[in-house]
Specification:
With 321 residues, this protein is of the alpha/beta class. The chain folds into 2 domains: 205 residues, Alpha-Beta Complex (Spore Coat Polysaccharide Biosynthesis Protein SpsA, Chain A); 102 residues, no CATH class. The protein is 32% helix and 25% strand. The chain has 11 helices and 17 strands. Strands 3-2-1-4-10-6-13 form a 7-stranded mixed beta sheet. A hairpin with a 1-residue loop joins strand 7 and strand 8. Helix 2 packs parallel to helix 3, helix 6 packs across helix 8 and helix 8 packs across helix 11. The chain is globular, with a radius of gyration of 20 Å.
Length: 321
């Protein structure tokens, strides 16, 4: 079994939650049907959204998708598989660039007791002991009169689908929790954070039920991932992220173009990486098998070490070295 190291903050919250949860008997029970709502925020997620949805076909009772200004084929990919989905699917639009507003909108649309904030690049296992159906059974059997916050763990890919980041091979990605009317997403520092009542009991999952595609994405995605958090504090001045990136490149990046910045950040944030070994991490989810056979992205080695990727142009690599 893969061992995951939680952060100091997560460990403290976990320890405190047990005595704090004793106060639940004083809190009126919030009644919702004992099912699972999944909320997904999407912006230009055409690469993995279809496989992500199909992988939770036997897990969710409903899926709320909030489309946030997608300009690619994300919505088309969703519609192509809609008839194959067994859960209730709700797709709405929210044009705000404030991620907390988008998240709170999705949260407000959920209708079941359990809520899972799922990302469009999460792919669930659909067979054997990691089958996400087993996670569904576990959640629905927990005491219906209590409130819970569940920390799942996942394998996170880095650079491509054949590598993981050294020291961060697994992560506690996404939150699974019961519903309460006081739940709210807020900004804390430069990150989005969901505020829970003090009496929620925290549980940790030891089994892995899904993987995270992570940084195994096109160059543009890597660039946006790096700038997104900082842009959230400049929305009034820069309503579009491309405007913010252009200004940042002039002021802080010595006029590098976006591709050059992305390559530098690939090396800084994503490297060093190591091979994803099935003997250590287990096999890939079934719905990823086709992508593994014909990968679009592949890390390139130099002198025996990961150095670049097949979608980086050679002139950009030389300038960024």
């Amino acid at each position: 079994m893969i061992k995951h190291k939680y952060t100091l903050r997560q460990n403290i919250k976990f320890i405190i939650s047990y005595p704090a949860s004793l106060f639940q008997f004083l809190i009126p029970n919030v009644k919702r049907e004992n099912g699972i709502s999944i909320m997904i925020r999407v912006r230009d997620e055409e690469e993995w959204i279809a496989k992500s949805l199909l992988s939770i076909n036997k897990f969710a009772d409903e899926v709320i998708i909030v489309n946030n200004n997608s300009i690619d084929r994300t919505l088309d990919e969703i519609e192509k598989i809609r008839k194959k989905l067994r859960f209730k699917l709700i797709v709405v639009n929210e044009i705000s660039n404030d991620i907390c507003k988008v998240s709170n909108y999705a949260l407000a649309l959920t209708s079941y007791r359990w809520i899972f904030r799922w990302d469009s690049d999460f792919i669930a296992y659909t067979s054997e002991e990691r089958n996400i159906k087993n996670l569904r059974e576990y959640l629905l059997k927990l005491n219906i009169k209590k409130h819970y916050l569940i920390y799942p763990i996942t394998i996170s890919f880095a650079g491509d689908l054949f590598h993981v980041k050294n020291g961060s091979e697994t992560n506690s990605e996404g939150y699974i929790h019961t519903w309460h009317p006081s739940l709210k997403y807020i900004k804390k520092g430069k990150y989005e954070y969901i505020k829970f009542p003090f009496f929620y009991k925290i549980k940790r999952l030891k089994q892995i039920f899904f993987v995270h595609i992570g940084s195994a994405k096109p160059l543009r995605k890597i660039l946006y991932r790096f700038f997104w958090l900082y842009w959230q504090f400049q929305l009034d001045k820069f309503p579009e992220i491309d405007q913010f990136i252009k200004q940042e490149s002039l002021e802080k990046w010595n006029c590098l173009n976006p591709e050059e910045i992305a390559v530098k950040e690939f090396r800084r944030l994503i490297l060093p990486i190591r091979e994803f070994k099935k003997s250590e991490f287990g096999d890939y989810p079934e719905l990823m098998k086709d992508a593994i056979k014909k990968p679009k992205l592949k890390v390139i080695y130099k002198d025996g070490k990961p150095f670049s990727r097949n979608d980086f142009k050679e002139d950009i690599i030389r300038k960024s070295t």
